[in-house]
Amino acid sequence: MAWYLVPIIVVIFLRIFILGVYFIPSGSMLDTIHIGDYVVTSKLTPRVFPLNRGDIVVFEDPANWLSGESSSGGILSGKDLIKRLIGLPGDTVECKGDGDPILVNGVPVLESAYIRPGVSPSAFAFKVKVKPGHVFVLGDNRANSADSRYHKNDGDDGLVPISKIEGVAFMRFWPFNRMGIFENHSDAFDDVKAKSANK
After folding, report:
1. Residue 85: alpha-carbon gap to chain centroid
2. Beta pairing partners, 178
3. 3-state class (DSSP) for residue 129
4. Positions in the chain whose pLDDT score sits under 50
5. pLDDT tens-digit profile of 22-75?
6. Which among 118, 101, 119 is positioned nearest to 110, based on CA atoms?
7. Are the beta carbons of 28 and 147 closer than 8 angstroms?
8. How many other CB atoms are found less than 10 A from the CB of residue 56?
9. Catalytic residue among 26, 28, 42, 72
10. Is 28 a catalytic residue?
11. How many domains does the chain have?
12. CATH of the domain at 90
């Protein structure tokens, strides 16, 4: 094999099996991810590594969600969305609305590190139990995000099947002046983890 083919093969391998690249045309994840950003995902999660609350996940549209919001615009497809994972299988996620915090298993989540400033955790009340093999997701820009809250009547309670998750976004590589690694802010869920561990 010619030596110059090696880097090409490595890049193809990484692109197919390890990394995903996505263009973001919507504002549902502001201010964490901006319109026009390009993000890189790791396909190893959830295939090899477990999902965590706080992960930024790219997933295939589970039930025609894109009729209410622009696609995340995966370079190879226009059928993907990007949101933050809030609830894992077995979690109960709820909010009373009117500025009250999101509760996971009855524990308030401290979202100030990632939710868009000035935006309420949820303008309306909801409550959902996350069933096995699924997750509950929300956009960081709650005022402009057609997320799990808005799809409770989609036949799956607005939940995303884990099988639809294509990867976890871990960095922005464009524009260069904002290139950097994403923080999943899992510490916002520390009290939730502590309660779960003490059950």
Report:
1. 5
2. none
3. strand
4. 71-76
5. 999 889 999 999 999 999 999 999 989 999 999 999 999 998 888 755 544 444
6. 101
7. yes
8. 24
9. 28
10. yes
11. 1
12. 2.10.109.10
